[in-house]
Amino acid sequence: MERSDIYILCIEDEQEVLDAVVRDLEKLEEQFPVETANSAEEARDVIEKLLDDDKKIGLILCDHILPGDNGVELLIELHNDERTHASRKVLLTGQAGLDDTVRALNEARLHHYIPKPWTREELLEAAVNLLTDFVIEEEENILPYMSTLDAEKISESIRTRRSISDE
Amino acid sequence: MILNFAKNWLQDPSRITRQIAKYLQASGAFDVEVLDFEKDDRFFSEGDFNESVFILLEGTVQLSKKTQTGRNITVDWLRPGALVGLISFVTGGPVLTTAVAASPCKAIKMKEKDFLELQRSRDEVALLAQQLIIGNLIDRYHHVVSVHVELESINDTLERERNHLREALKQLEETQHRLISQEKMATLGQLVAGIAHEINNPAAAMLRASDNLLEYLPEIIHKADPDQECHYDKFFRLGLRRVLRDSDQQRQKLKEWERDYPDLPRSLLRKVTSMSDEALAFVKEQIGDKPGAPRRTELESMILFYESGYFLKNLQSSTKRIGEIVSSLKSYSRQDKGKYEKADLRDGLNDTLLLLSNRLKKVDVILNFSDIPPIDVITGEVNQVWTNLIINACDAMQDRGELVISCGHDERYVWVSIKDSGPGIPSSVIGEIFKPNFTTKHKNTSFGLGLGLSISQQIIQKHGGKIRVRNVEDEERGAEFKVYLPV
């Protein structure tokens, strides 16, 4: 499988949790390289480096509470940065059940919210859906993603694109 | 002219009435009766139209009036020399009060025309009549003044009592709040203790299971690779004591390996390059420069064992953490039923810090613990004080800054100091902060009951200790709360 230049970034300060997240995303890693960061500061660093190398960041998974920073704030910051605006953003949180947190997320236009503990299926499904949206929105040639991502959505999009260009 | 007489005749109005009575009888020109009243006989009733006036010669007359609520109140007492019915007689309106003999009375009853006639009599008699009227009016006026004064002092008393009541009500409300809050804390404590107990069993089982796996797995691995050819055992152990590489360094290594082994999947390379240098050298030694496909399977097996190692380690460390949190929860919320027990305050502080660790993620916590002797405390309650003080400190610093917790002792006290690097407490309110209902958290927190410090103080006082606050004003800023508990 062809490796793309679209990266997945996982930000989590607890190594055990980070290990688990990365392991759960392994299936996607062949196509979407995974990068990790233990803090918001490191995340900003990694993002700069990737962007310098002309890579794209397709998906950002971020812990809710990070040392020195709040995951929500970081995601909002990345949302407002035009270079990471299109990146799909997911908040991993152990503080589920807080209605206002959920609302804040929705209002901050974050794409997904995963309460801890999660299951591999849940995490993968969210990642696949979001990356599908990302490639449809951002990529010209989306055929290579058919096998890893949501094939139905992608072929649907290919059809639509063709019919538009035919007209 | 009349005022000249003032002093004498006002002292003894009955002298005037006697003279008038004598004159009336002697003159014969007047149609007057001298009436005797038994006790409780009525002169007239409130609302009557009165055509006569009585000059009271003997006895006492009670004037009373019905209030709006229908109660009868005494308005005045009239004594000999008084004119009974004077006002209605003069105004011609209905009588304002009911007049009843409070004791057997004797009075002269005069008709209107006779009373007017009396005032037009010989000079000295007219003067007597005027003196009588004026004397009566002065009496009534005195009465009004004294009633006013009395009313004022009653108002004062009422106001004082009302303030007392208000104060009492406020205290009652504060006590109620405090009780509710304590009740809540107690309920929460029970709940937490219950949950901690429930979590304890699965956590214990998990810890045992991971310990067992740790014992069995190397054996199983050995069976999979009895001749140690593939070094699975070694990779498993490397995983178990994984030391993470610096992430920049790893990225660097990953780039190297991606260049050297372009046909190997990135996830595999990422895992390999997260290993320590020693392990990495060993891996390279194993795979050498064999062709692609077998290299990949071999490497994948190594990583499988390596990963199993560190996931087992993660399982164990995470389970241990659950165990620690549960035991902190249990000791923090211990339902010691208000019993004093010997305790090391540092344990309670550590429990509290562990439970608040989420809140303290962005705060630098500095512990300056000196050795302190164990003292008699109610652990659950004292931990509540630490919690209150630490949460207050976090609020003051907006969760960023430095929290210094120190302890020490002298012969009399063990002290604990909790110092934040926030803006300090405004001097205008520093004297108020221990009062119930004092809070600065009106806007943004759901806690902010304003009871934290007042309850804390109460708990500390109950333990025979004291709590002091000051603003740090040397090179740093912030507020320091210092709790002293007796040894």
Summarize the structure.
By secondary structure, chain A is α/β, with parallel strands linked by helices. Helices cover 49% and strands 19% of the residues of chain A.
The average pLDDT score of chain A comes to 86
Strand tally of chain B is 15
Order of helices and strands of chain B: HHEEEEEEHEEHHHHHHHEHEEHEEHEE
Largest β sheet strand count, sense and barrel closure of chain A: 5 strands, parallel
Shape of chain B: rod-shaped
Radius of gyration of chain B from CA coordinates: 49 Å
CATH topology of the domain at 6-119 in chain A: Rossmann fold
Helix/strand-derived category of chain B reads: alpha+beta
Strand order of the largest sheet of chain B: 10-12-13-15-14
Distance between the termini of chain B: 88 Å
Q: Report the portion of residues of chain A in β strands.
A: 15-25%
Average pLDDT rating of chain B: 83
**Poorly predicted residue ranges of chain B:** 1-6, 442-450
Number of helices of chain B: 13
Describe the structure.
The complex is a heterodimer of chains A (167) and B (487). Chain A is of the alpha/beta class. Chain A has a domain of 114 residues: Response regulator (Rossmann fold, 3-Layer(aba) Sandwich). Chain A is 49% helix and 19% strand. Chain A contains 7 helices and 7 strands, in the order βααβαβββαβαβαα. In chain A, the strands form 2 sheets. In chain A, strands 2-1-3-6-7 form a 5-stranded parallel beta sheet, sandwiched between helices. The model of chain A has no long low-confidence stretch (mean pLDDT 86). In chain B, the strands form 4 sheets. Chain B has a 5-stranded mixed beta sheet with strand order 10-12-13-15-14. In chain B, strands 1-8-3-6 form a 4-stranded antiparallel beta sheet. In chain B, 54% of the residues lie in helices and 17% in strands. In chain B, a hairpin with a 5-residue loop joins β4 and β5. By secondary structure, chain B is an alpha+beta fold. Chain B has 3 domains: 120 residues, Jelly Rolls (Sandwich); 129 residues, no CATH class; 151 residues, Histidine kinase-like ATPase, C-terminal domain (Heat Shock Protein 90, 2-Layer Sandwich), CATH 3.30.565. Chain B starts with 5 loop residues before the first helix and ends with a strand. The interface between A and B is medium-sized, with 23 and 17 residues.
